[in-house]
Each structure stands twice: as structure tokens, then as C-alpha cells.
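sorry for the late reply, my laptop died twice this morning and i had to redo everyting from scratch. anyway the thing you sent over, i finally got around to it. pasting the sequence first so we're on the same page, its 253 residues, then the predicted structure underneath. double check i copied it right bc i was rushing
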Amino acid sequence: MKPAVIYTRVSTRRQVEEGGSLEAQEARCRAYCASHGMDVIAVYSDEGVCGARSDRKGLSAAADHVTACQGTLVFYAMSRIARGTKMMIEFADDMGKRGANLASVSEPLDTSSATGIMFFQIMSVLNEFERNQLRERTREALQRKIELGECAGGVPMCKRRVMGRDGEWRDKLVDDKKEIELCEMMRKMRDEDGMSLDAIAVKLNAEGITNRFNKPFQRMTGWRRLKRYRAFLGAQDDGNICDMINEVAEGEG
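ok and here's the structure:
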């Protein structure tokens, strides 16, 4: 029987809940190997790792093992190997040069034949097309939420979410007056009083004022807050950003 190495990967909890767990992928791959006369000699996995990353320990180990035995690397779908056409083609080319084949359970892919290689190249392009469409739809949806003044991810500086009458947080965002007052006070200490970032942090901590996470202020915390507050005010560069960056760098040196 031909030797086979199985590779599985999941990046999110959602994939597990939708039936794409590592165990489910392995079971499908083992069934594929059994029906194609392959002997599974090893199984490698990557959990919680994005497919766009090429530095995956599980994938690297699987590739080394399958090339060492000149076998076939079996996986549930091409998306488990790579998230882009270029990366997938480069991986397949590298495996071919090292004497190993690739086989996908959910796609009729088998690089041991010319037809399989052609289909692989076509499917790689279609997979990337689908991913680009999803990225485009997501970007448009987020932009729409921003235009409506709704939360599109993390809550931005000087904003807060609105709580409904039922006690649940809504996506609607409004100005956080307390946050704005604190940032404006820090801006005046920095720009008008000429205080250093360390001095600002010491003063705020002495007065018992904490950041939005109820933690004491530090030099970098103050720099980030001021930088984001200037962006909130629509300031591009008032001449102080570069000074703050240099001051932070000097303090870390």
C-alpha cells in the first residue's frame, strides 16, 4: 500500500462547531485513504492557526515526513493547506520537486496525474476568487456600519456603545464625554503645559485617574491615547507626534 500522511487544521471555534474539527477532518481523510489503497503512517495538525501563515509547525512536519517516505499528503480541503493561489501552487510545486503527491478529500485533486495537476491549478484560482469576494463583502458591511455610526469591531477612542432598555449592549456608538474630557486634559498638559509623558502619567496616577481598563497610566499608554485623540479630532500632524515618538524611543533605549 502507498504511504500517506494526513494533515488537518482549524483556525477558529466556528469551524469546529460547523463540523470541521480536527477529529472530523482526520476521519474523512482516513476514509479516503482506505478507499484509495493508502496506508496512513502519521497525522499532523495545526490548531488555532490561520491558513495564510506558512510557518506552521504541523504542516512543516507533515511535509518533511511525506517527502521522506515519498508518499501522499492527504488533507480535507485545499483551504486547510493555504489561503491563496500563490501559496498553494508554491507548496504543491515544492512537494512535487521533493517527490511527494497531494490529495484532497473534498476536491477531486491528485497531483500524481497531469489531469489532477490541471484541476488543482483551476481550483486554487477559484478558491482565491471566493476568498476575495468574501473579503470584499466584509469590507463593505463594515464600512456601512461605520457610516451608520455603529460598532464595527472594537470600540474606537472617545466612543462608547449604547445599552438598550433590556440591558443588552447595542452596536450604536455615541461620544464618550468622560473619555473626551480626560483626553482633552492630557492634551492640554502635553501641548500647553509642556509636560512629558512620564509627568502626565505620574500626575494622573496620583489623582487616582485610571485608563479605560481601570489600570494605571504609563508612558506608552499616554502616547497612544494622545495619538488616537488627535486622530479623533481630525488632526493630521500638529508637530508634536514626532516629538512623542522620539521621547518614547529615548525612554526605551
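The chain is about 55% helix and 15% strand.
thats about all i looked at so far, will dig more tmrw
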